[in-house]
Amino acid sequence: MDLARARRDIFRAEKALADCVVREHEIMVNLSKHQSDISKKKLDKADTGLGLQEQSNRHISVILD
What we know:
- There is one protein chain.
- The chain is mostly helical.
- The protein is 85% helix and 0% strand.
- The chain is rod-shaped and about 105 Å long.
């Protein structure tokens, strides 16, 4: 009977560990998504900045007859 209880305790501990690992992976996925969103926003901002910079470097010349 003691052996059966010990095995049960081991299985419960293994399940608790597996649950923790799954939760850790879920958190890491959420963190990766968040970091990806931040990187995308930075890239979009940089692209917008480049577009504005290209426009501001253009000069208009007026030739009068």
